[in-house]
Description:
Elements: E1 66-67, H1 84-107, H2 109-128, E2 133-139, H3 145-153, E3 171-175, H4 180-186, E4 193-196, H5 204-207, E5 210-214, H6 223-232, E6 238-243, H7 251-263, E7 268-273, H8 281-297, E8 304-307, H9 316-327, H10 332-349, H11 359-377, H12 391-407, H13 414-420, H14 424-436, H15 445-452, H16 455-507
Parallel strand pairs: 2-5, 2-6, 3-4, 6-7, 7-8
Antiparallel strand pairs: 1-4, 3-5
This protein binds guanosine-5'-triphosphate and magnesium ion.
Amino acid sequence: MxxxxxEGGPVGAGPVSxxxxxxxxxAADGAAAGxxGGxxxGGxxxxxxxxGADSAAAEPGETEPVVARPGAAAGAAAGxxGGxxxxxxxxxxxxxxxxxxxxxxxxxPDPAATALMAAVRLEERLDRGVEHTIVAxxxxxxxxxxxxxxxxxxxxxxxxxxxxxxTDKPNACVxxxxxxxxxxxxxxxxxxxxxxxxxLEEHIGEFRGLILVDxxxxxxxxxxxxxxxxxxxxxxxxLVWVTDPQKYADPALHQRFAEVARAHPGRANVVVLxxxxxxxxxxxGQIARSLTELLVGDSLPSITVASVSxxxxxxxAALRQELTAxxxxxxxxxxxxxxDLVQAARRLAEDTSATQVDAAWLAAAVAAAVDxxxxxxxxxxxxxxxxxxxxAALRAVCDDWAVTAMDxxxxxxSLALAYAVGSPVNIAARLTQALSxxxxxxxxxxxxxxxxxxxxxxxxxxxxxxxxxxxxxxVVDRTLARPTAALLADISKLAELTDRVAAAGAAAGxxx
Length: 512
Ligand SMILES: Nc1nc2c(ncn2[C@@H]2O[C@H](COP(=O)(O)OP(=O)(O)OP(=O)(O)O)[C@@H](O)[C@H]2O)c(=O)[nH]1
Ligand SMILES: [Mg+2]
């Protein structure tokens, strides 16, 4: 992109307003969103750095943004990041992968595939470092994303037009060094990003490490635009959602808010109501309040609404200041990675928490199944070993097993139980083989009734039952008990692994 670089003003008109017209940061505890307020986000004091105070990498007196040059060496911050939090997340990734494999074996590809994709994404991010904060500007077509991007960056870089859609590839502006690998990972072309390092720039200290990305419209008629927006969305550490007075209540927009926020609950979001220059101030306030209420309805109560005009610059200074709350401490990247990890673990662990390997239940279930099969093999006290066990009776035993096992299993694991235990046909084959070698006498009904009252008969019956039990028990053990115990052990193991992953994620700041 051959952008002409103009420093110091938002696109379109006039300098950036130093005074926000409609202040927007959230309440100090972050609980109540609202369009109006005076405190910095999250209660963090936002200290505006004097220009150049934190700009060791900048040349003295440098005032022009530095245009990225292909092949430029990565800065000092590039390359794999060390540090205990990152090392802990890497260890947790190993657990997450093991948990995903376990889940895939037992429950099928979903949600294991989602967890594995998250693991790949996280590893790729950790390999490229988490000191940078990726802030993605996204929203519907023509809402003013590129205009706002330019206004935040204080230069004309992204193309703005009245013709829709305009942006078809992501643009980026980077503050500070060492973002090349991340930009490549984000799929931002070499000629579509620019570096800002001006010592005179407001907030340069807090913005150092910020990668601001302007996305194509997600609601585009052009499918490639949607795909680009969708691909980049999970990679961003902070999302800036841009909407306008016409589309702020669009159900499709709110559905997307809710879906994306649900998928990444630990991630910071800022909602921007742009184009407030088209409204009178009372109207702007009303729409901002209405948007806030809609966000509460989307289950996003803690999202801040920033009211701005990318054209006049109203509210942009306050928005820039709010962004510094996410970028100043350079921890948003780590927090996002950690939160994604916690989320992936939680999804995998869904339905495992209620489960404990219950040895007493298993022993009782084995005894009940054996009793049922012995009774079946010696009906009415008559010893008549069934060479071919009755199919209906076997199915009843298996059904009983499944019903009681399911009481001890989380819902989604019931099907896994059906796969784990032997089918009645398999059990029948094994029983037939086990019983056929017993060679027990067959007494016809009348003889049996006469014989049953005799003491010697009772003793012989007890002995035959003992032999029956001895033949049946190993079959029940192999076909029902052991596979069920292994399944319960896997559920416990999955719960343990995912607990560990979630704890590691939470310790690294990824509390959801
Ligand atoms: N009045 C007014 N017009 C704006 C504002 N922001 C953007 N515009 C205009 O809206 C039109 C679209 O702006 P863009 O910044 O290209 O919008 P976009 O969201 O990037 O659009 P796509 O790249 O097509 O998705 C342009 O004509 C801008 O000048 C604003 O705050 N107020
Ligand atoms: Mg655009």
